[in-house]
From TrEMBL, chain A:
Family label: Belongs to the succinate/malate CoA ligase beta subunit family.
Domain ATP-citrate synthase/succinyl-CoA ligase C-terminal: 271-390
Reactions the enzyme catalyzes: GTP + succinate + CoA = succinyl-CoA + GDP + phosphate; succinate + ATP + CoA = succinyl-CoA + ADP + phosphate
HAMAP family cross-referenced by the UniProt entry: Succ_CoA_beta
Pathway assignment: Carbohydrate metabolism; tricarboxylic acid cycle; succinate from succinyl-CoA (ligase route): step 1/1
Keywords from the UniProt entry: ATP-binding, Ligase, Magnesium, Metal-binding, Nucleotide-binding, Tricarboxylic acid cycle
GN (gene name): sucC
Binding site for substrate: N273, G330, I331, V332
Name the UniProt record assigns to this protein: Succinate--CoA ligase [ADP-forming] subunit beta
The record's free-text note on cofactor binding: Binds 1 Mg(2+) ion per subunit.
Subunit architecture: Heterotetramer of two alpha and two beta subunits.
Residue positions binding Mg(2+): N208, D222
BP terms from Gene Ontology: succinyl-CoA metabolic process; tricarboxylic acid cycle
Entries under NCBIfam families matching the protein: PRK00696.1, sucCoAbeta
Automatic annotation (TrEMBL), chain B:
Protein residues bound to substrate: Y159
Transmembrane segments annotated in the record for this chain: none
Keyword rRNA-binding belongs to the record: no
Similarity comment: Belongs to the succinate/malate CoA ligase alpha subunit family.
Record protein name field: Succinate--CoA ligase [ADP-forming] subunit alpha
EC number(s) recorded for this UniProt protein: 6.2.1.5
Gene that this sequence comes from: sucD
CoA-binding domain location: 4-100
Annotated HAMAP family: Succ_CoA_alpha
Enzyme class: ligase
Biological source species: Maribacter vaceletii
């Protein structure tokens, strides 16, 4: 589950990680009040107005701007809130901005130069251990750094039994070229960041940039935080942070029904049992000359109610020109799934797109008979390739 | 021969008396699998499905000589069940449970690292050696006996592959569902290695999906091994968008090297017979086996 920058920072701060402070605002007036409050608390003169959406590259899309006085705060916040922010990570239509974070200016002048670093905490799937990935090249797109200067990216893997050890935090601070106060600050920053990662059950932290201020403080200026979905049951305070406005509406609805659905751009909807077979079915649709409109795993119990719910979800997408149902019946018998499809189809009564049903496994032939004798505009198949050929025929 | 499980495996079911455990243990027993008992803490001393229930895995090891376990324990307690089994000396730990928090699996996989055991899964359909033992949730009738080994991250796609192989008049030695989570026990490479080294297995089907490096590691091991046993490969998710989790928690494209295209390229370079269409797995197996 992805979080907004301000939510991620809240979590970090609760574990003692120093952050660039800020206040959330939902309109221009609130933004001005937030700016006043922040000046009173931090002494900041200027303010940074940051769009709060689940997408990276916000600065490039005009979603992060510096305000040098309250009039500018009002103006900029007014412009950003309500805009459709288009970044390299959003769709072409962009994402609607509902709120901004009014943040303190942390690039103030002082005794030393400011510098920006990159730091993330994530799972190394190869070793099954967490690692801290960091770089001297902060504030930039890390994929570009990895491409052009891979030697400037370092990783530190953490032993799950021992946890992050002090020498590892020191090594990170040395590799980032720090000394004196900033060095000590960095070791503290890394230690509290890792503690936050583990104790929040996160699956990803990306702090870009981590800033060394002109007075040698180390802080998180941005925070991209994802919490492990499977651990939300024991992290209820974070589960409540979920912002459904940031997610695809059909996916949210499907999720509430217990259907695993991902919305895609294509024209052939699909309904499959099992994630791997669902992906394979999408691939087959593509090979048959179509484009998958969705990923949908209906799970083990494909009864009439569930099939009907899945139909309704798929048909919410107006681009869908055909639906391929691909169920491999193992424990769940194909004839029951077939009856479920016939019942759901009849109940809905208004399905306008052609439907191809491929049922294989237990009682597959009986299932084909049920479909073929139903009198409905549904084509049946038993072999995988047969289903692909029928999709092809329908599309041409 | 076969790998991981056979007719002599002494199998217990953890989470034996729960609804999932009860249903699938029943199916396993009906198949003829040598289930010697089950574990549900607090229900020790009872009998369930005609088999003894124990409070701890250690008790099951001591009293009925259990060497293999299948875990149906709910996600919040599953990692603990894995560690208990490893601690008790169980050799093969097959974990079906889906939805275990990653942090729990980081801990469990570290804990079992130095123990003399092999973990399969979690979030997998299990392992079947046709005619001998079904230690999983797969429909047993699909898997006929034969000489083709299967390694797969997915459940229903494994059944699909097995069905296609059987339709070609061939059969299966052992099918291993390794699971679709970010952290799993037995890797693609380890499962492929087991089957390549199995004297009865003449061909291996390796089914992967987007995300991670497991298939590439397996392909590189295969090339280095110099084995002449053919491998037929398929990777699901060519049409999956980057950055989105596709059902399985581990099925997510993170970079340019874990896409379906990149994996298939590496597999081809290593001498694996890769099919682009999931409908051609069986036909390809028949072709390479001559």
């Amino acid at each position: 589950m992805n979080l907004h920058e301000y939510q991620g920072k809240e979590i970090l701060a609760s574990f003692g990680v120093r952050i660039q402070r800020g206040v959330v605002a939902h309109n221009a007036k609130e933004a001005v009040d937030a700016a006043k409050q922040l000046t009173a608390e931090t002494g900041t003169g200027w303010h940074v107005i940051k769009a709060q959406v689940h997408a990276g590259g916000r600065g490039k899309g005009g979603g992060v701007k510096l305000a040098k006085n309250l009039k500018e705060v009002e103006e900029i916040a007014g412009n950003i809130i309500g805009m459709n922010l288009i970044t390299p990570q959003t769709s072409a239509e962009g994402k609607k901005v509902h709120q901004v974070l009014v943040a303190e200016d942390v690039y103030y002048p002082g005794d030393s130069e400011t510098s920006e670093f990159y730091m993330s905490v994530l799972l190394n799937r190869g070793t099954g251990r967490n690692m801290i990935m960091y770089s001297t090249e902060g504030g930039m797109d890390i994929e570009e750094v990895a491409e052009s200067t891979p030697h400037l990216i370092f990783t530190e893997e953490i032993d799950p039994a021992a946890g992050l050890l002090p020498f590892q935090a020191r090594k990170i601070a040395f590799n980032l070229g720090l000394s004196g106060t900033a060095f000590k600050e960095m070791t503290k920053f890394v230690a509290s960041l890792y503690k936050a990662y583990v104790e929040s059950d996160s699956s990803m932290f990306e702090i870009n940039p981590v800033l060394k201020t002109s007075d040698d403080k180390i802080m998180a200026v941005d925070a991209k935080v994802s919490i492990d979905d499977n651990a939300l049951y024991r992290r209820k305070q974070y589960a409540e942070m979920r912002d459904l406005r940031e997610e695809n509406a059909i996916e949210v609805e499907a999720g509430a029904l217990g259907l695993n659905y991902v919305d895609l751009d294509g024209n052939v909807g699909c309904m499959v049992n099992g994630a791997g077979l669902a992906m394979a079915t999408m691939d087959l649709i593509k090979m048959a000359g179509g484009e998958p409109a969705n990923f949908l795993d209906v799970g083990g119990t494909a009864d009439a109610k569930r099939v009907e719910e899945a139909f309704r979800i798929i048909l919410k997408d107006p681009e869908v020109k055909a639906i391929l149902i691909n169920i491999f019946g193992g424990i769940v018998r194909c004839d029951r799934v077939a009856q479920g499809i016939v019942d759901a189809y009849t109940n809905m009564g208004n399905i306008k797109v052609p439907i191809i049903v491929r049922l294989q496994g237990t009682n597959a032939e009986l299932a084909k008979e049920i479909i073929d004798n139903s009198g409905l505009d549904v084509q049946s198949a038993v072999q995988f390739q047969e289903a692909a050929d029928k999709v092809k025929a329908v599309l041409s | 021969m076969s790998v991981l499980v056979n007719k002599d495996s002494k199998i217990i079911v953890q989470g034996f008396t729960g609804s999932e455990g009860t249903f699938h243990a029943g199916q396993m027993i009906d198949y003829g699998t040598n289930v010697v008992g089950g574990v549900t803490p607090g229900k020790g001393g009872q009998e369930h499905l005609g088999k003894p229930v124990f409070n701890t895995v250690l008790e099951a090891v001591e009293k009925v000589g259990a060497d293999t376990t299948i875990i149906f324990v709910p996600p919040a307690f599953a990692a603990d069940a894995i560690m208990e089994a490893a601690n008790a000396g169980i050799k093969v730990i097959i974990t079906i449970t889906e939805g275990i928090p990653v942090a729990d699996m980081v801990k469990a996989s570290n804990y079992i690292k130095d123990k003399d055991c092999r973990l399969v899964g979690p979030n997998c359909p299990g392992v079947i050696t046709p005619g001998e033992a079904k230690v999983g949730i797969m429909p047993g009738f699909v898997f006929k006996e034969g000489n083709v080994g299967i390694v797969s991250k997915s459940g229903t796609l494994t059944y699909e592959a097995a069905d296609q192989v059987v339709r070609q008049g061939l059969g299966i030695t052992t099918a291993i569902g390794i699971g679709g989570d970010p952290i799993i026990g037995t890797t693609t490479k380890e499962a492929v290695e087991l089957l390549i080294n199995d004297s009865e297995t003449e061909c291996v089907v390796m089914i992967g999906e987007i995300g991670g490096q497991l298939e590439a590691d397996a392909a590189e091991w295969y090339k280095a091994s110099g084995s002449k046993k053919p491998i037929v490969g398929f990777i699901a998710g060519e049409t999956a968008p980057a950055g989105r989790t596709m059902g399985h928690a581990g099925a997510i494209v993170g970079g340019s090297d874990d896409t379906a295209q990149a994996k298939k390229r590496i597999m081809r370079e290593c001498g694996i017979h890769v099919v682009d269409s999931p409908a051609e797995i069986g036909v390809k197996v028949k072709e390479v086996m001559g």
